[in-house]
Amino acid sequence: MNIKAFARLVDYPTALRLVLARAAGGPRPVTRVPVAQATGRVAAADILATTCRPPADISAMDGYAFAHAAMVAHASLPVAGRTVAGDRPEALAPGHARAILTGARIPAGADCVMAAERMAVAGDTVAPATPLPARGANIRRRGEEFTAGTRLVARGQVLDWRHVALLAAQGLRDVPVARRPRVSVVSNGAELAADAAGACPDSNAPMLASLLGASGARASTHLAPTDNMAGQAACLRAATRGADIVVTTGGISVGNTDHMLAILRDMGADVVFRGVAIRPGRPLTVLALGGRTIFCLPGNPGAAAICALMFVRPYLRAIMGVETPPFPTAATAGFTADAPAGVTQFIPVSLHRGPDGACCRRVPTVGASDIIAFSRADALLAVTQENPVRMGQVVFPERLFGTN
């Protein structure tokens, strides 16, 4: 059998299912990072509150704390002392008020707080200058936000500044997170050699490393600037060492210099699938090598980017244990598009604010080699023969940015 041939393309849903099956049930190494550095990382376990918030009844504002009944009975009260945040106050003397700052604990004996600007001060006494609020007013009760044992962060949550604030408020110094997968990105081809007559700069490796790094990976790049099979094999073997995932770009089609598949088969890799019925990106091939997953992407930058977005990024999310699916973006299509039978076509679109909400427009592209189209696009829209796009239809494109 000619191992280079695309004898039997798999459809997009099947290919994605096979990729995600590779991620299921595998080990998910865990590490700990300082809470302040946790943004973008994936929580490796549920994180529970160790204390209530607030930890005690506290004042919601700067003002005066007093017993409501005493203020009703006397109309004004002498002020005895001041309580600030961080104090453990003594009990309030009967028939007195106390100055109190926002976040300070309510002294025993007080059951109401009134804002300073709503009080009239005469010497050492205070009286309401506006109607007296109800008993219990302006007091944040112990545990009203959450109690000890409340789940603050769910396993699989991608952490951001909101979770950093929450965990830091609990006094946590570090947090268990999924270890960032180690991804080796390998580009190849004689045209990438600096001394080649028609030398081309390598845009694929830095593009993919950046894309996958933004998706949670720890990516490194490797270059085999040759069409020589032995030279490419040496680079690929070096890139594989220590990597959880290997992503190659170029050399996976059926030309005389496309050696990636043969090299990987010689290394003992098994083919998961060879070719996908998508456009662009048809040559995408996925292999298994020991515990590693190898993604062989086309060499055209646009096709490589689409394969990384639609296959490698979901795989990364899965192996890091991300539980929440990407939030769909609903937009009204400003164009019509069809796809050939049996093919999923990915169309770059830009998102705009319209009078009735978000709308999307097709971004002009010259084909699989186009990279400027992605700098003008915000999302990808999948189109099939069964699900064409019609002007004015509500569609759900996949955002290009973020982990999620």
TrEMBL record:
InterPro entries: MoaB/Mog-like_dom_sf, MoaB/Mog_dom, MoeA-like, MoeA_C_domain_IV_sf, MoeA_linker/N, MoeA_linker/N_sf. Keywords: Magnesium, Metal-binding, Molybdenum, Molybdenum cofactor biosynthesis, Transferase. One of its GO terms (cellular component) is cytosol. One of its GO terms (biological process) is Mo-molybdopterin cofactor biosynthetic process. One of its GO terms (molecular function) is molybdopterin molybdotransferase activity. It catalyses: adenylyl-molybdopterin + molybdate = Mo-molybdopterin + AMP + H(+). Its cofactor is Mg(2+). Pathway: Cofactor biosynthesis; molybdopterin biosynthesis. Signal peptide: none annotated. SUPFAM superfamilies: MoeA N-terminal region -like, Molybdenum cofactor biosynthesis proteins. Residues 184-318 form the MoaB/Mog domain. Its EC number is 2.10.1.1. Catalyzes the insertion of molybdate into adenylated molybdopterin with the concomitant release of AMP. Belongs to the MoeA family. This is Molybdopterin molybdenumtransferase. It comes from Komagataeibacter swingsii.
